[in-house]
Design brief:
- By secondary structure, the protein is α+β, with helices and mostly antiparallel strands.
- It has a single domain, classed as Thiol Ester Dehydrase, Chain A (Roll), CATH 3.10.129.
- 26% of the residues lie in helices and 36% in strands.
- The protein contains three helices and six strands; from the N terminus they run ααββαββββ.
- The protein has a six-stranded antiparallel sheet, covered by helices on one side.
- β5 and β6 form a beta hairpin.
- The chain is globular.
- The termini are close together.
- GO terms for molecular function: fatty acyl-CoA hydrolase activity.
- InterPro entries: ACOT13 (IPR039298), HotDog_dom_sf (IPR029069), PAAI_dom (IPR003736), Thioestr_dom (IPR006683).
- Belongs to the thioesterase PaaI family.
- Keywords: Hydrolase.
Amino acid sequence: MEAKLEGWHEQIRFDFETSPFFQLLGFNLIEVSEDDVLLELPIEKKLYNTYGNLHGGAYATIIDNIIGMKMRAVFGQPVITIDLHTQYIAPVSDGTISARANVYGNGRKIKMGDAEVFDYEGNLLAKGYGTFKVIKEG
């Protein structure tokens, strides 16, 4: 059963804190505000590819989720991913990565967004963009 919370920011935090997937990977939700959502992922060996770097799927996952969370913050509605593209720029093997997103869309059901992923020194590691569909709650 889904809890209905008063504010969108409370709902984002609740969804994050009760997500087994976020807990499995080790995500940290750092900031939730009307203007910004910041998601971090400490790099652990369990997230490495065969070359000892962060797996590309981790980049795609943080991009997908930060865009979805930002849409929830801006539009006040949950979304699901229709299409996602990730551009890998640089590998990383330690520290923490972080992601921020921008979202767009005047459509009632279809929204778009993009995100960037940085290492702890501010170096750009990956970029992504996607198309999302607004869904009904509950």
